[in-house]
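Milestone 3.1: sequence recovery, worked example.
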């Protein structure tokens, strides 16, 4: 985890989209927001979650690792930059490699775009735009010590498990205290495969399981 970084606190997000609007004002991608504001249970709950680039560092960000044009550079302080406009070929390898679903591809410009931690601001000690405007502190910029001084007892995680693969990140997430000692499960549960509702398949599987679209349902 970086010294000064973003801490995401899902329990504080109210879905106001102030971070989305502020992100559009960044000079490096003016008019386009690099934040995903996800509603985890649309139609059932107002729960929301801001998703920014996690600036992976284990051992190098997956998006940078798979880029065939070396367009995604990582700074000495661990910030994974968005694609260099002079090198990006719009292949979307980075989109497929990112376990958090962060990079976006501008198909017309053939260019990858993503959060770069407002490097034009953070390199000079200023907070990213999103954290500056967040009214509830769901996006907090600073050190772990500063976060814990403001929110005593808070626990954070910077390791996430995707199946058998563990990814360490430069950005951390506030988690329940009893979960911080294990890698936080990454991704979302599979609910549909080839048009088949897997929740229904699991509830009706019986004793032996079956195959759906070439996938074993156990």
């Amino acid at each position: 985890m970086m010294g000064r970084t973003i801490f995401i606190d899902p329990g504080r997000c109210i879905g106001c989209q102030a971070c989305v609007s502020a992100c559009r004002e960044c000079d490096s991608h003016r008019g386009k927001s690099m934040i995903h504001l996800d509603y985890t249970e649309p139609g059932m709950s107002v729960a929301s979650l801001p998703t920014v680039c996690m600036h992976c560092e284990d051992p190098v960000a997956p998006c940078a690792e798979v880029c065939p044009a070396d367009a995604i550079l990582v700074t000495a302080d661990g910030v994974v930059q968005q694609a260099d406009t002079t090198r990006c070929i719009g292949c979307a390898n980075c989109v497929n490699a990112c376990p958090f679903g962060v990079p976006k591809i501008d198909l017309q410009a053939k260019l990858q775009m993503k959060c770069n931690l407002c490097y034009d601001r953070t390199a000079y000690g200023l907070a990213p735009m999103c954290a500056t405007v967040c009214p509830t502190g769901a996006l907090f910029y600073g050190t772990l010590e500063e976060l814990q001084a403001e929110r005593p007892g808070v626990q954070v995680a910077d390791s996430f498990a995707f199946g058998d693969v563990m990814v360490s990140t430069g950005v951390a997430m506030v988690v329940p205290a009893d979960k911080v000692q294990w890698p936080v499960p990454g991704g979302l549960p599979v609910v549909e495969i080839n048009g088949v509702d897997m929740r229904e398949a699991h509830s009706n599987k019986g004793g032996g399981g079956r195959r759906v679209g070439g996938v074993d349902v156990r």
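Residues 144-150 form the longest helix (7 residues). The helical segments are 18-23, 62-65, 93-97, 119-122, 129-133, 144-150, 198-203.
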